[in-house]
Amino acid sequence: MDKWFESVAVAQRRARRVLPKAVYDALVAGSERGTTTSDNVAAFAELGFLPVVVDQPATREMATSVMGQALSMPVVISPTGVQAVHPEGEVAVALAAASRGIAVGLSSFASRPIEDVVAANPQTFFQTYWSGGRDAIVARLDRAKAAGAVGLILTTDWSFSHSRDWGSPKIPERLDLATMIRQLPGVITKPRWLARWARAGWRPPSLGVPNLAAPGSSVPTFFEAYGEWMQTPPATWDDVAWMGEQWGGPLMLKGVMRTDDAKRAVDAGVTAISVSNHGGNNVDGSPAPIRVLNDIAAAVGDQVEVVMDGGVRRGSDVVKAVALGARAVMIGRAALWGLAAAGQFGVENVLDVLRNGIDSTLLGIGKASIDELSPADLLIPPGFSPG
Question: Mind listing the pLDDT tens digit for each residue in 56-67?
Fold first, then answer.
């Protein structure tokens, strides 16, 4: 119990104590001045509840499903790149998600191969970008299918913004000897982090992206893969439909922030959409996803599954998102802070915090199931939504 933390905020503080400053800063940074990154969290605080005090439900049901996968609660681990804050990285996250009965998204920029992650959690959604030629994309999809991925996430909410005004660190292209020497002053002050890697055999954090390696070729570095994406023309709606046809299974389009885009996504044949601004790493000044969620869900929620990604820190945040039309939320930074704080146990801890928060909120507002939630259960201030 000495490792247990009672909130995501505590997990974040512990992660900050454990991680080298440059690594921690990379987790919290957003594009430009970070306005959107901050609003993703702050917007939830503008929504309220009116609790009940009598006839509260004795039990509360929170199970749901996303893209055909049964979930014990309306939470999915969002795909985030290079989870080398801990030696076990994405495998530890996948194991934690499996132990709590939820699905995990695996980034194509992950530090661990998809085969290892699916072995840890068969409920794995593989995330990809529109990057490279169609032959390269098909090869990645074929590999994901062969590994056993049960769904595909197409991310298009990563902008071409290069500016981060508020201290995002320079990410090295590779961890060669010269780079490690330069990073040593920031690392030597974090003995717990060093000890983890020592127990892992002093294997340095990988900055390669094995899931983007072409058959028979070496693993590209993060920036080699990023460069390929930068040089690829952005996807069209026809490209989205084509990817769905090539995949032949459940497909989520991540990054939808407008009702007209949501309707086009339905026309393109996707299974689900994620209302997301890439954790504030898309266009700075975009609204928090929770602000536009209800309008999007009202427009297309009867035709496609709607999930939300961005700013979730509490179980009550999950309840607010579901009340506004989300089938589930996806969490990114919260899971990474748990991973940094205590590995697989830390991610499980974060998921338990969210589950307990969902349960206590449902109890407090007198709901026996997440299926009973609606916007009427929230206090929504005037002007909350830009719509």
Answer: 999 999 999 999
